[in-house]
Model the fold of this input.
Amino acid sequence: MEQSKWVFVTGGARGIGAGLVRMLVKEGYSVAFTYLSSAITAEALAAECHTADTWCRGFQCDMTDHAAVNALAASLCSEYGSPYALINNAGITRDASLFVMDATRWHEVIRNNLDSVYHTSHALLPHLAENGDACIINISSVTGIKGNPGQSNYAATKAAMIGMTKSMAEELGRFNVRVNVIAPGIIETEMTAGLNDQQLKKLRDLVPLKKLGSTEDIARMAVFLLGQGGRYITGQTFVIDGGMTA
Ligand code: NDP
Done:
């Protein structure tokens, strides 16, 4: 049987990343995903997603550690061959008004949200280019488009991902590597599960569709971009926000 195409997903143990992993496997892709500290959750997800025709494996790997990312990428490519796609999803927030944002918060977010994208892209590019048909998806945020008070560090990284994506799309088009951004709005994850009804209503009121997005909403767009529908799309940003930025 032909080996399934495999996808590298960063930060796949929880939230949007876990939604991506589940949908990719459902669509017939094999998946290698990373996490930082959610070992038990990662193990359960990998076990849940293993099928007869595909594999799904979670790896503890800090995306801010360039050498560790290089080592994992090399080991996976040697075991499974070149990946079909890279999805840069891992990201963190360390919110504070810029008045009181110390350098630790600033650099932590830059390292986790932006340096990480350089690390994975640089490590996997030769392999993706070698395929002659490959994709990169960078998970940004509406905050990278319209900003958000208290999130200047986060917004800077998410806007930078959009610029980086456009440059990469222009560089990599000749290898038929398509590079796009998905910019989610407010998505229901563990974070929103902790909010009370009043807080949830406040969030919903910000959205023209009057509901929060789901991890599946993001994963569906990713699967579209990876599939036939995405064959002539590169350098673009797809906003999935229920109309927040309309
Ligand atoms: P979560 O915090 O739920 O999950 C983030 C995942 O990334 C976790 O699995 C975490 O690992 C992993 N991770 C974080 N840093 C690293 C690192 N240095 N190395 C390896 N893994 C790491 O995030 P969300 O699902 O909410 O968000 C996913 C992406 O979507 C982020 O880039 C975020 O900015 C973006 N986004 C999210 C929105 C939302 O409403 N949720 C809205 C817009 C954008 P571990 O589990 O071990 O901690």
